[in-house]
Automatic annotation (TrEMBL):
Keywords on record: ATP-binding, Hydrolase, Iron, Iron-sulfur, Metal-binding, Nucleotide-binding
Name of the protein described by the UniProt record: Iron-sulfur cluster carrier protein
Entry keyword annotation includes Mitochondrion: no
Binding site for ATP: 40-47
UniProt cross-references to PANTHER family, sorted A to Z: IRON-SULFUR PROTEIN NUBPL
């Protein structure tokens, strides 16, 4: 039976019958906020944003975990330089991998022999694995659990929204994607599933001129009108910059500039959840 006391949805759940609650909440875990990071399509920087957000929250003194729900294309371990680590499986559950700063991380790559072993599974097995990452991993006490979703509005995104008590989702997009139907679809999916959309981060929004203050916009996407119409806040715009690429190539600990660029976005997310 679900443990309602530690469930982040306990205040939203209303008079839902406890016995019929779909959420198998591990009583060992006490997670205050679960934030899904979503994108309409692949390669827009969703995993990079998940890692920047998690690290910035850690820097602010919160207890944070990352659940890599991108089962067939997990990139979180590599972004954190943890690709050689493996999770420990106990009778009582799975101990996540700890980054140097104490960030707790769970990814399928921590359970396979080699990082490049492909996962050739059908949708229901993938969805079941994501569920287990929520129910069987010993997250213990967390202020924030960041869930890096696979791109799009497929099976796994649906499972996460159905079985995990998400506090809200953050949508990542790039400018030319923003005005397209794809992002609107992802936003509409979250709304249909009664999941709050905390806002949109426009990634690769501009390039900063190295010699002046000019921000060079490469695309003409009209974000603000689009978001105003959809009543969704813009959490921030991130430039296309080497310091953010360095998160992937050199690890988060070498990306101070990227962390500085991201901080206002973290602050807005924290405020949204107050
Ligand atoms: N603001 C940025 N400036 C420069 N490069 C970036 C930026 N954001 C992300 N990238 C790069 O873009 C690539 C894709 O990023 P990432 O893996 O985070 O995307 P994703 O949306 O999670 O992809 P996937 O669809 O595989 O889940 C990476 O090489 C990353 O370093």
């Amino acid at each position: 039976m679900a443990s309602c006391e530690s469930c982040p949805s306990k205040d939203k759940c209303g008079d839902k019958d406890r016995d019929n609650c779909m959420i198998e909440n591990n009583p060992i875990n006490d997670v205050k906020h679960i934030i899904g990071v979503m994108s309409g399509k692949g390669g827009v920087g969703k995993s990079t944003v998940s890692v920047l957000l998690a690290h910035d929250l850690m820097k602010k003194g919160y207890k944070v975990g990352i659940l890599d729900a991108d089962i067939t294309g997990p990139s979180i371990p590599r972004l954190l330089g943890l690709q050689d680590k493996r999770a420990t499986i106990l009778e009582t559950g799975i101990i996540p991998v700890f980054a140097d700063n104490g960030l707790k991380v769970m990814s399928l790559n921590f359970l396979v022999d080699e990082e490049n072993t492909p996962v050739i599974w059908r949708g229901p097995i993938i969805a079941g694995t994501v569920k287990q990452f929520w129910t069987d991993v010993l997250w213990e006490e967390l202020d924030y659990l960041i869930v890096d979703l696979p791109p799009g509005t497929g099976d796994v995104a649906l499972t996460v929204m159905q079985v995990m008590p998400l506090t809200g989702v953050v949508m990542v997009s790039v400018p030319q994607d923003m005005v397209s139907m794809i992002v609107a679809k992802a936003i509409n999916m979250a709304k249909k599933m009664n999941v709050d959309v905390l806002g949109v981060i426009e990634n690769m929004s501009y390039i900063q001129c190295p010699d002046c203050d000019t921000q060079i916009k490469m695309f003409d996407g009209d974000i603000k009108t689009f978001l105003d119409t959809a009543h969704i806040p813009l959490l921030g715009e991130l430039p296309m910059t080497k310091s953010i690429i360095n998160v992937a190539s050199q690890g988060i600990n070498h990306s101070d500039e990227a962390m500085t660029l991201f901080e206002p976005i973290t602050n807005k997310i924290i405020k949204e959840l107050e």
